[in-house]
Amino acid sequence: METRGKPQHILQLSEEQRDRFVGSFDRVLSDIDGVLWSMEYTVPRAVDGYAALQRAGKEVSFVTNNSVRTMEQCLRHFEKLGLQVAPEQVWHPAQSIVLYLRDIQFEGLIYIIASAPFKAVLREAGFQLLDGPNEFIEESYQSLAKTIFDHQPVRAVIIDVDFNLTSPKLLRAHMYLMRNPECLLIGGATDRLLPVAKGVNIIGPGPFASILVEASGRQAVTLGKPGRELGELLIKHLKIAEPQRVLMVGDMLAQDIQFGRQCGFQTLLVLSGGCSLEQLQAETSPDLLPDYYADSVADVAQLLGETPKAHV
Amino acid sequence: MSLSKNLKELHGADRQRFLDSFDLVFCDCDGVVWYPLRDFIPGSARALAHLQSLGKRLTFVTNNSISSPEDHIEKFARQGNLKIEEHQIVHPAQTICDHLKSVEFQGLIYCLATAPFKQLLQAAGFQLAQESGPVVIKSLRDLHEAIFDGEPVQAVVIDVDFNMSAAKLMRAHVQLQNPQCLFLAGASDMLIPFGQGEIIGPGAFINVVTESVGRQPVVLGKPGDALRQVLLQRHPDIPPQRVLFVGDSLASDIGFARASGYQTLLVLTGGTKATDVSRLPANHPQLPDYVADCLGDLVDSD
């Protein structure tokens, strides 16, 4: 049986450990927010880490839970930082849901609670969406009934981040799930809390998806990290034959590290985002403990820069 | 086979013994006295009049603050020909108002509830915070404004809000980071009977805040512990076993009442079906002592 030690800082590895680590993976799956940038800051020299990984022949893809921005916005942000990233390299819940729905040959109406860019991805892929109400309802049970009782044949409910999420939307989604036992429940981002600034968290999308899970008694198909179905999708579409030769990099224990562990990937936590060293040290669940940690992805550049070239 | 006694099967001396076993009745309204927000359920007015004529004290314990106490009283009079007074109606807006007075609360309140609920607090002299930021949130900047730009508050109150929103809950969560800020909740049902089934109730939204903040609210609606204490203190002269609690919800009424040691009667005119009861094992905390098809069965014994 594999025994795992305490997470090791990648710059505190012995030369031998370092060589073994660097040679142990071919592919890197990396989170974006809190790793490269956040709402308020850019992580210094994080791009150097990815440039070094690419020079070392590692294949880099990004797996984010953030579908609130458009792909164009995301790629432009990479470019501004001096990193060339192709659209195929970026995975986000809206697009993963499109792939999943195509894989299962889904046909029919979808009721969706999500941001405008998220909905645009599904519409462009040809799916038929219902949403709303997009304004506040009159305060009465009559108007609530009119809003939530709807007989359209909805075959999937999708929930991700929606800045304008309201209770009538959740109640309406719950009705579709109760009316049709075959109706799928599909979730994207799962974060319980979202760090928006140092020490400031806001409620994330996870608790709202959980309301639907608990009220309907239905399991959700989760295509954001740490969803099992996202892992299966990635492994299939990236043709990952040896999960242990994949390194998952991220700043969130419950999303990135748990996801990586679940998929059988190696895991590297960076302390540039939503998790502090104290939080890492206080973590006891083996499902949430990374193999390695670093102050930021910039440390990876240093790690690789000092690696002998002879390594193949 | 249900472990609860069916009222219809109580005859003669058994029925008399049952009627003699309580002095006070706590009675839910929606789904028990009347169909939610509609007419009286046949037989319930007669049953309530019968209880009054037997000298039983009657208090209505409802989670509905959407209708004002005046509306309730008028409905009792007009549809049921029953004279009910304001002090006989216990509902979250009032219990929260009483609680705020009892702690001599001063300051601003962020209140997520319906207009009648808010009006009751304002009429009692409490100040409520305004919503901040745009109505439709188009960007992270808008969201930031909605969450962070409002005035700081000293209490957060959550009850039924037809337009509960993520942004409101996020603002509540941010305010509750201040350990001095009071956290009060009214109706806390996870699910509410509505139409042919159940809809998500206010409890689900309260839980989002509770889990995010890591702090429990004082819950002054059913099935809250603080409300249980309020009810126990209302009639200190009557021992709990001489109280009959009547409701239509296993979680919000029966489980709630059993925790206080009251006798319990579940009526099947609301959100619970007979099979929901017969499924319960003997030691289940939501198992009612008695079951009836409707409140009218308190009178009819044929």
CATH class category label of the largest domain in chain A: Alpha Beta
Which CATH-level-2 architecture of the largest domain in chain A?
A: 3-Layer(aba) Sandwich
Strand content of chain A: 15-25%
How many alpha or pi helices of chain A?
A: 12
Mean pLDDT of chain B: 94
Low-confidence stretches of chain B: none
Order of helices and strands of chain B: EHEHEHEHEHEHEHEEEHEHEHEHE
Rg from alpha-carbon coordinates of chain B: 20 Å
Structural shape of chain A = elongated
Count up the domains of chain B. 2
Number of structural domains of chain A: 2
CATH class category name of the largest domain in chain B: Alpha Beta
Task: Explain how this protein is built.
The complex is a heterodimer of chains A (312) and B (302). With 312 residues, chain A is an alpha/beta fold. Chain A folds into two domains: 8-65 and 226-305, HAD superfamily/HAD-like (Rossmann fold, 3-Layer(aba) Sandwich), CATH 3.40.50; 94-222, Rossmann fold. Helix content of chain A is 37%, strand content 18%. Chain B has 302 residues and is of the alpha/beta class. Chain B has two domains: 5-91 and 224-298, HAD superfamily/HAD-like (Rossmann fold); 93-219, HAD superfamily/HAD-like (Rossmann fold). Chain B has eleven helices and 14 strands. Chain B has helices spanning 12-20, 44-53, 69-80, 92-102, 115-123, 140-148, 166-175, 202-213, 225-234, 250-258, 274-278; strands at residues 5-6, 24-27, 57-61, 89-90, 108-112, 127-128, 155-158, 182-185, 191-194, 197-200, 218-219, 243-247, 263-267, 290-292. In chain B, strands 1-14-13-12-2-3-4 form a seven-stranded parallel beta sheet, with helices on both faces. In chain B, α6 crosses α7. At the A-B interface, α6, α7, β10 and α8 of A face α6, α7, β10 and α8 of B. Chain B: Substrate binds at residue 222. Chain B: Belongs to the HAD-like hydrolase superfamily.
